[in-house]
Amino acid sequence: MGVCCPVIRTRDLRRSSLFLKLALVALHLVFIGFLLVCDAQFVEKTRLHPWYVIDAMRDVDETNAILYRYAPTTSFKNCLRCQKMVLDLYPPGTSLRNLTCGYCHVEQPPPAKHCHDCDRFVLQFDHHCVWLGTCVGQKNHSKFFLFCFHDLRWYICEESALCIWTLIMYIDYLTNVAKPWWKNAVIILLLVLLVISLIFVLLLLLFHRSNLILTNQSTYELVRRKRIPYRRNMPERVHPFSRGIKRNLYNVCCGNDTLDSLPTAYELEDKSRSYTCLDMLKCRCC
Question: Based on the domain organization, do 25 and 148 belong to the same domain?
Fold first, then answer.
């Protein structure tokens, strides 16, 4: 019995160590699932429809019905008003004024795209969120960013605390397990690198979304710039729909129900002009 006890004790320690590792991994997964799945407020707020082009035209139709006192129909006059509304978003004399959606054959406003996943023509299309099951567009873009910022902030803080607690428990437990010291050091180093990488990726995602908000860009414009007709001939650092940092932030916080129009050639030339010291003092970017 005296010979078998150390073998049994070592086997029990290894089994307990395996159970501890599995329990810690499960704890992380449960925490992530609780944060992303059980946050009903986040899901409800961001599942609001992103404002489709057809709905925007219907709003114009109903507004005209109130102003001119006729029933909101899809008559020829109303179609002409919607076409004129879209044409006014493009600079006069450009071929872009004749753009129509190739799927629903509707006049295409500048920051709009037809989503192939939900088969809708979305205003200020950003991306299609598979997890939410809807597009992120003009009406829910601000809510998507604000709730992402709120959840990412708490996720980084709580996940960091959980990883530190896991690291302390792991170091304390490994002192009782007969294993070479360099193996323990490698495991601890990998855990630390994992925590740093996780926080870096989340912060990178947050800064990326913040940059899009401050410059009034969408993910689609950033990624598919060469495929968008009105973006092909523009310099890369020119953001056509930016109204300045203050105005962009105001639109995010308070909502924006207006359609963005493309700038004229003079406005594009002014936007592409390099910043000088005087421009910085005058807060030209704001």
Answer: yes
